[in-house]
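OP here, attaching both records as promised.
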Amino acid sequence: MVKGKIPDEEARERLILWIRRRMAEFGITPQALADSIQHDLDHRPLYRDARGNEWNGQGEMPDWLRAAKNAGVSPDFFRIDPTRQDAAASSKIDPRQLDLFF
């Protein structure tokens, strides 16, 4: 072991504790987190810019996309390729991550 380096398993446990404390501090329940994740899965973004801003096409058009449209850029330029999106959705969840919040 390198002096001053925390073993991976200990670092992981510390991170889980930190996340749980922050969730408690802000009143975030595991169910609220699961509901938010499910909402994001059910309403995937349709548009994304180079800075990572996203919009699922619902509600009012966000400022970043409105500004681009007003500058003459078609919103279709920012449209996410649905085949890439489906490939990302089908990726498997690492089972080591399942105990992070429960």
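Record two, same layout:
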Amino acid sequence: MGDMTTREPTGYLSTGPVWPELIITRRIPHIIDAVWNHITDPELLDTWYGTFEGEPATGAVTLTAQESPDTPGEARIQHCEAPTALAVTLDSPGGVWVLTVTLSADGEETDLEFRQRLDGIEYDAADIGPGWEYYLDRLVLALDGEDVSALQWDDYHPALCEHYRRERPEEPGQMPEEN
């Protein structure tokens, strides 16, 4: 029998005050500039996710994920504030993906918050959440200088799907939604 690795999900499905979204948080044991560079530099991005072509200053690049090299898509940069905030929209066959990454430094560590809007796309959190868990674990391995191919997709999907089918109750400090 194979070595089954149990992954602990670090995110949740939020119905949110405006739209449903997937939210994943991580504490990464690397300085903020290193994390930012791995998200925004095409050569470093390619060590864990994929690469892009084009000039980000124009507001759009062509992004190609390693897992789907035959379907590059346009990534439009909505907001970029180095080294703390990046918001992009990605054209995908299942709709437009609206993604934000927020980084905050805490000494030698970085807190990462990833968000993806779930309205208007064909996929739900049960399928998307495990995928981003997989990629964020690959990011940490790349930052550590480790082999990202050591991670197995099957440890994430369908293993973590059930976790992302459940909605998380309102976050502390949020007003409950009216029915």
